[in-house]
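re: ur question from earlier - yeah i can do the single chain one, its not a big deal. heres the input i used so u can compare w yours
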Amino acid sequence: MVRTMNSKDSFASLLAEGATQAAVRQGKRLKPGDVVKGTVIQIGHDTVFLDIGGSMDARMDRSEFLAKDGTLSIAVGDSVRATVVGDGEYGPRLARSFGKGAVDVSQLQQALDSALPVEGKVTRATKGGLELTLGGVRAFCPASQIDLGFVQDLEPFVGQTLEFRVMEIKEDGRSIVASRKALLQAQATAEQSTLLARLVVGEVMEGTVASIQKFGAFIDLGGIQGLVHISEIAPHRIERVEDMLDVGERVQVRVQKIERSDKGQPRIELSMKALAKPAERSTVKKDTVLEATVVKSLPNGILVETSEGSGLVPARELGIPRGADHRRAFPVGSALRVVVMTKDPTGRLSFSAAKVGAAEERQNFADYGKADASSASLGSFGEILRAKLGLPQPPPAPAPATPKPAPAASVAAQPTKLAAPAVDPNAPTAASRVFVDPTPAPVKKGPKPHTGDLPTGVVRRKPTS
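and the output i got, formated as tokens:
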């Protein structure tokens, strides 16, 4: 079973290092596997000498401090932490890794006991893993121990020189099992310990969305992950995490809580909502038509940004045929006109693009009704129409000229108007003296006129005297 380093191991290694330093000061003999800390006092052609506080200086191979370009990565006065791999006549021999030169099985056993990394070169890829040489000794790295995650294609590793950790030595060195994953996990744990040491509640950090779950998203903070619960992603309620975040997206988070689980693993709670600016409560009314810009496409619609705030336009309110792809019809960055439908108590808006025309008709009818009600105060129909269309007012009509008074002579020459005669108010008027009898006048009866036998249309003429 692979044994990885955790925070307890790091603390234990520090205690062991302190105990070793105390033993060195007391002149006690060091044994392989002891971890010591020394200061570089001299750099030779092949050897680096370190002062570890004892009566004799320690030695390390100079090749351990050479970079890939051949430059030396250490200087006199630098501190070095290394592991005792042997005790020679001229002082203890230290190493930070094995494999820079020729190594044997005994040295690999020391690397196994001290958990030191061993440098090896990959020679061949098989179905089960990688064949490699550790300083001239053949070893095998299983496919499950090559990287932190599953590796499908092993061929790209062939020819590379990598560091491994010796996990098992069997049959007097004829069967050696190495692991690169164990080394990577130890390095990641060390980075986590360093990050946790400086991480404080309230700190604002930038991270990457590592994975998305139903209950939230895990954010990689650079070697350690924290959780943003779904309720801490946005100021408003969201239905799905993937509606707001994508894997690989860079986000700003605030550290809310740092604690450890029952198994000792760090548990970090993060929040994005804590960094969001408090939204100003919008006073926009329903049926208000706004200009909008698409900022995100969602499975159930699109998110738009307006002058009154952002909100969702459901797919059913986009005015496109059923089953059509709204992502293609309204790509991110496109502009459209929307009308406010609803607003929840938190101020979140819901829009519709399909009902813009109906909302404008209702608004125009309401404006016409207001104009008609105030027509008396506005003036003529022309003035109402001019105000509706925003036309300028016509220039005022010139005032009528005031007639000049006539000269005194002409006034005197004008005839004097006679005063009307006085009228007695008690005198009966002409209307009051007229009496109309509603009873029809009686018809006088008498002999009918003799018509004779004259033909129709002939009138008897009266004889003349």
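Confidence is low (pLDDT under 50) at residues 1-19, 409-413. not sure if urs matches, ping me
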